[in-house]
Amino acid sequence: MSKPLSYRHRTISDEDIVFIRNFIAAHPASSRRDLSKKLCEAWNWVQPNGALRDMVCRGMMLMLHRAGLIELPAARHAPRQLSGERAKPALVQSDESPMQVSLAQLGALSLHQVRRTPEEALFNSLIEQHHYLGYTQPVGEHLKYLVYAQGRPVACLAWSSSPRHLGSRDRHIGWSKEARLANINLLAYNTRFLILPWVRVPHLASHILGRMARTLSTDWSALYGHPIFFLETFIDPQRFKGTCYRAANWQLLGETTGRGKNDQTHKANRPIKQVLGYALAKDFRSRLKATPSATAA
Asked: How is domain 100-296 classified at the architecture level of CATH?
């Protein structure tokens, strides 16, 4: 190779290419899926919670295959539909009778993390039906919450891995490129927040955000094996004022560039949004600015 390749911040050397070629040759009966899992095991390529990074590994191997550097076995299954063609979540019925009370009258709230539970289908259905952006299947680490009151769902929240590059956020944290690459998984991005349209409870949204701040890191650690130290979200000022976030002490960090992560023109091609952030630890900067070398020292 003329210069080292990389995939998801992993450098791929000439020796790695030779290893993968020999690895494929040594497992002639294995499918692409099996090869990616076995290669992760051989390299000890795992997530912080110990799970294999087989989806990332599969993408890396496909990139090398398309570049003519390795030869993968023929695909045994037809590829899934493109995201734009993905089937919509199944409709799940819920009680839509009006709920118009004060926060005190609403009573105790319970937050249910519903990813990988039977309640996930209800979450997906409510977001698809009632959120203006609809439902999109998250990629990477993510959690989904249903908030219940009086035995009924009143809100939905989704949290995902944060964008790798976000200028206003990165300046706020003050981390180096090396620290960002090492610690970006310690941030979470609020991708969806929905108070169900038949629920009219003043101050409910900011109250839920406060509750989320006290439980999200623990839940994330339980599923992914690492905590969360900083939260962020985007607000479209043409649609919303972000009042509930500000009431919950979220801080305005700046604005997006409106160019997206694959920009080639350096010109805005989508709405510019406000970036809001919330620290879950007082020493979040020192934690996020630490690099593996500094930690080892």
From this structure: 3-Layer(aba) Sandwich (3.40)
Reference 193, options 169, 219, 159, 223; nearest CA is 159
State both tokens at 204: 């409910």
- Angular region, 100: left φ>0, alpha ψ -120 to 50, beta rest: beta
User: CA end-to-end span of the chain, whole Å?
Assistant: 34
What whole-number distance in Å separates Cα of residue 134 and Cα of residue 21? 43
Q: Which helix (H) or strand (E) holds 251?
A: strand 251-255
Beta-carbon contacts of residue 140 (< 8 Å; ≥ 6 apart): 160, 161
Sequence ranges of the domains in the chain? 5-66, 100-296
pLDDT digits (tens, 9 = 90+) for 178-203: 999 999 999 999 999 999 999 999 99
Q: Residue 275: CB partners within 8 Å, gap ≥ 6?
A: 166, 168, 169, 232, 233, 234, 252, 253, 254, 255, 256
The list of the chain residues with pLDDT below 70 reads 1-4, 77-86, 259-269, 293-297
